[in-house]
Specification:
Number of strands of chain B: 8
Strand content of chain A: 15-25%
Shape of chain B: globular
Order of helices and strands of chain B: EEEHEHEHEHHHHHEHEHH
Oligomer: heterodimer
Largest sheet of chain A: 5 strands, mixed
Structural class of chain B: alpha/beta
Number of helices of chain A: 6
Largest interface: A-B, 18 and 21 residues
Structural class of chain A: alpha+beta
Radius of gyration of chain A: 14 Å
Chain lengths: 143, 268
C-alpha cells in the first residue's frame, strides 16, 4: 500500500488533498486490502457512483467486493452521486464526523442523489470505505 | 434486584404489553424509535425503591399488537394521545413522563397538552427534529431493503463512547431485531415533529438531559428547546459526557441518579 504521508495526506496538518487522484488511487488500494469492505461490497454488481467534491468528480465502482476507479474506462451509468463541499468531505474521509451525519438532511452538507435504493444497498460498504479512508489519513474512525 | 412484571391491557381495543417495576408515584417511560420497553430495565430497577416505573411497548413494537391493518402510529400527536389512553388504563392517575429521542419529544409534548402529567424528563428530547427525508423514510419498508443491515452503522454511530458493553450490545440487538414498519412510523413522527409553538404551554418541571456524543439530537437543538420552555416552573439541562442517543440504555445508573436528584429538587 502506498504511504499516504508521501503525498502529504495528513488532515490535521491541512495537507490532505482529497481532490488529488493520487488520494483516490491510494484509497482504492487500501480498500482492496480490507476484508470487511470486500465482504460488505460482495453483493454489488457494477455499482458505479460519483464522489463530487466542490467542482471535482471522482468515479468509483463497487463490483463483487472490489472497488475500482472508473476514470479512463467506458461508463455504463452512474447509479448515484455523493456531493458536497470539500470541508465536509474531509470530515467524512478523516472520520471526524460519521457518514450518516454528513449526509443527514438537517446536520450535514453532503447530498446523495440518484438511485436511492442502490445507495442504500451500498450503505454498509460506504461506511466501511470511510473507515478505511480514516485509517489511511491517520484520522480516528467513527463506529 | 427489583422484580419487573409484564402484563397486557387493552388500549383502543388492541392488546398492549407493558412492564412495571417498583412502588411509589408513577413514571411512564417511552422507548426510542422502533425499539421496545426493555431499554428501560436498568433505570426501572434503579428507581424501584421510590417510584413505580411503567413502560409500554408502543403498538406494533415488542409484544404489543399492531393497530388494525398491521399499522403503527406515525404522528407525534397521535402517539401522545395513545400514551394518554394507555396511562388512563394502566395507571389511572397523574404521572411523571419520561422518554428518549422520539420518547423525549413525546415527553415534552405530553407535558404541554396533558394535565395529568406532573413533570417531564426528556432524554435527547427536542421540540423540532426535521432529520429524516421522506425518501429515506419510504425506503425503510421497501421490499428490497434490509433495514437491519442498512441501519446498523447509523444507529451504532449514535451510541456514546462511555456506553456500557451491555448497553451497546442491546442497542445493536435493537437494530438486528428491527420491525421496519414500526421504525418507519416512529421516525416519520420524529422527522415531522415540530412542537415549538407548544413549549410555552408547559407548566410543569422539566429535566432535559443530553448525551454529548449524540449528533442526531444535538446540544444546540436541546438548548433551543430549553429556550422555549418559558413558563415551566423548573427547567434543568444536564449534560451527559460520553453518552450518546440512548442514555437510559447506555448508562442506566447515571440516568437514574440524575432523575432522582431532579425529582428531589422538584419535590416529586
Amino acid at each position: 500500500m502506498a504511504d499516504p504521508h508521501a503525498h502529504g495526506a495528513t488532515a490535521s496538518e491541512s495537507r490532505l488533498d482529497i481532490s488529488d487522484t493520487l488520494f483516490w488511487d491510494m484509497l482504492v488500494t487500501a480498500a482492496a486490502e480490507d476484508a470487511d469492505l470486500r465482504g460488505k461490497a460482495a453483493h454489488a454488481r457494477a455499482c458505479a457512483f460519483a464522489v463530487r467534491i466542490d467542482d471535482a468528480q471522482h468515479l468509483l465502482e463497487f463490483h463483487r467486493g472490489d472497488l475500482v476507479r472508473l476514470e479512463g474506462r467506458e461508463l455504463t451509468g452512474i447509479r448515484f452521486s455523493i456531493s458536497g463541499p470539500r470541508g465536509e468531505w474531509e470530515k467524512v474521509i478523516t472520520g471526524a464526523v460519521p457518514y450518516a451525519q454528513a449526509i443527514n438532511v438537517f446536520h450535514g452538507l453532503l447530498r446523495v442523489e440518484g438511485d436511492a435504493l442502490c445507495a442504500m444497498w451500498m450503505t454498509p460498504a460506504l461506511w466501511q470505505l470511510w473507515r478505511v479512508s480514516a485509517r489511511l489519513v491517520g484520522g480516528i474512525a467513527h463506529g | 434486584m427489583a422484580e419487573i412484571l409484564g402484563r397486557y391491557v387493552e388500549v383502543r381495543g388492541r392488546q398492549t404489553y407493558y412492564e412495571a417495576c417498583g412502588e411509589g408515584p408513577a413514571i411512564v417511560a417511552i422507548h426510542t424509535a422502533g425499539r421496545e420497553g426493555r431499554q428501560w430495565h436498568g433505570v426501572m430497577q434503579a428507581l424501584a425503591g421510590r417510584y413505580r416505573v411503567v413502560v409500554p411497548d408502543l403498538p406494533g413494537h415488542g409484544k404489543s399488537w399492531p393497530l388494525a391493518g398491521n399499522a403503527c402510529l406515525q404522528d407525534a400527536h397521535d402517539i401522545a394521545q395513545w400514551l394518554r389512553d394507555f396511562a388512563a388504563v394502566a395507571i389511572g392517575d397523574s404521572f411523571i413522563i419520561t422518554g428518549c429521542s422520539l420518547g423525549g419529544n413525546l415527553s415534552l409534548l405530553l407535558a404541554a397538552v396533558a394535565p395529568e402529567v406532573r413533570a417531564a424528563v426528556a432524554l435527547q428530547g427536542c421540540d423540532h427534529t426535521p432529520t429524516f427525508t421522506e425518501t429515506a423514510l419510504d425506503l425503510m419498508t421497501h421490499p428490497q431493503v434490509s433495514l437491519m443491515h442498512a441501519n446498523m452503522d447509523f444507529s451504532m454511530s449514535l451510541v456514546g463512547s462511555a456506553a456500557t458493553p451491555e448497553g451497546r450490545a442491546f442497542s445493536e440487538w435493537g437494530v438486528l431485531s428491527i420491525i421496519p414498519v414500526a421504525q418507519q412510523g416512529d421516525l416519520r413522527a420524529y422527522g415531522r415533529c415540530d412542537i415549538r409553538l407548544l413549549m410555552d404551554k408547559v407548566k410543569v418541571p422539566v429535566l432535559l438531559a443530553h448525551g454529548s456524543d449524540d449528533w442526531l439530537a444535538s446540544r444546540e437543538m436541546v438548548e433551543a428547546t430549553r429556550g422555549r420552555l418559558v413558563n415551566a416552573p423548573l427547567v434543568r439541562m444536564v449534560p451527559l459526557p460520553g453518552l450518546g442517543h440512548f442514555p437510559h440504555l447506555e448508562a442506566p445508573g447515571r440516568v437514574a441518579d440524575m432523575m432522582l436528584t431532579f425529582f428531589d429538587e422538584a419535590g416529586l
